[in-house]
Amino acid sequence: MHATPEGRAAGRIVETEAYPGPGDPASHAAARIGRTARNDPLFGPPGTVYLHLNYGVHWCLNVVAAEPGRPEGVLVRALEPVEGIESMRSRRAGRPELTSGPGRLVRALGIGTDLQRHRLDRPPLWIEAGEPVPDAAVVATTRVGIRRAADRPWRWYDGRSPWVSRR
Known about the structure:
Elements: E1 2-3, E2 9-19, E3 49-54, E4 58-64, E5 73-83, H1 85-91, H2 102-109, E6 121-122, E7 125-126, E8 138-141, E9 155-158
Antiparallel strand pairs: 1-2, 1-7, 2-5, 2-9, 3-4, 4-5, 6-7, 8-9
């Protein structure tokens, strides 16, 4: 993942969570909620940004993952910094936890709400294919920080990375 607002930064995505739409009670587009002005970006197209405000405090980055009209997304929970670490530190006010958590990641990369619905195949924020994580290093577990459907194993992370938000 690369970001170019206020200085170039890049990192390797090391933790994600799936939110597969209306059948998932924890999704912002769960059947009981439906389509709203708040979650509309989640309805597509795929490969675009859906930003949501968590607990009224932290912006979180999601990637729309299904065809238009199907509100499925992937929350990017952690990033292993590989470029622009000083820029990230500056945005995080010198705090040691740069990108281990969805709110920290958004702040460290300088992502703003102007990127809502942004296509992730171009600057200023984009995702490129990288080295695959070996199957033996992939950890599948339950999602973090939710109450509904908390037992579903829809969180994946690279077990080799110290940048994962919670183990």
